[in-house]
Amino acid sequence: MKKKFIALLAICPLISFAQEESQKQIAPLSKWEVGFAPGISIRTDGEFYSEFSGLFCTNTTLLRNVGNVQLGIGVPFNFLINDIWEALPQLIVNRTFNAKHVYFYVGGAAGYASRQYILSEYMFTYENRSSRGYVLGLQGGLVHKLGKHLALNAEVALRSTQYWNNRITVDMGFEGPLRRTETHQFFEASAVGSFGLRYRFN
């Protein structure tokens, strides 16, 4: 029994040393990160009875790492068909899981949604086609550290967007233009995949 106790005392410092060395190899996350990532969004539009469509998107982020929690803001821009674009500024909260050369994260986001219809096939009928609303979602991804500052970022996100707009309909009749205002509401769900770069600094 005494020999076992002595052997245990001898092993404990070695285990502690190995754990300390392992922790040294995993560098802590930088305090701040700035990212830019282009991607593709696949969405179903509740306005058109679950018709699926794809679009090009970009996402710019500013993130602050506090321990294993990541806080920040993101500004995705989506470019839809028919010269329609939307901006979705949102607050981001992630939980990070750090490893030697990469870290993983999962989290949620919530923010404001704005859509502008620059041109459309209805341009002679609708005088105003802008929409406002909110966006909610979940995201997960990984960041691969290339060096002290640069890193690659891959992310998959699910987003739910609710929109309202006031459409001014202009009907060209025999007695002149007749304007009618309509309040319209619609919902969209989307899956977004993006791949880009992050710059990490303290």
Low-confidence stretches: 14-24, 48-52, 120-125
What would you call the structural class?
mainly beta
**How is the biggest beta sheet arranged?**
9 strands, antiparallel
Helix count?
Answer: 1
In terms of quaternary structure, the protein is: single chain
Q: H/E series, N to C?
A: HEEEEEEEEE
Helix-strand blueprint:
Layout: H1 2-25, E1 32-45, E2 51-66, E3 69-80, E4 84-87, E5 90-98, E6 102-117, E7 130-145, E8 150-173, E9 176-201
Antiparallel strand pairs: 1-2, 1-9, 2-3, 3-4, 3-5, 4-6, 5-6, 6-7, 7-8, 8-9
Q: What key phrases describe this protein's structure?
A:
202 residues, mainly beta, 9-stranded antiparallel β-sheet, 1 helix, elongated
Describe the 3D structure.
The protein is mostly beta strands and 202 residues long. It contains one helix and nine strands. The protein has one helix at 2-25, and strands spanning 32-45, 51-66, 69-80, 84-87, 90-98, 102-117, 130-145, 150-173, 176-201. Strands 1, 2, 3, 4, 5, 6, 7, 8 and 9 form a nine-stranded antiparallel beta sheet that branches. Strand 5 (90-98) and strand 6 (102-117) form a beta hairpin. The longest helix has 24 residues, at 2-25. Mean pLDDT is 78; it is low at 14-24, 48-52 and 120-125.
Characterize this entry briefly.
The protein has 202 residues and is mainly beta. It has one helix at residues 2-25, and strands at residues 32-45, 51-66, 69-80, 84-87, 90-98, 102-117, 130-145, 150-173, 176-201.
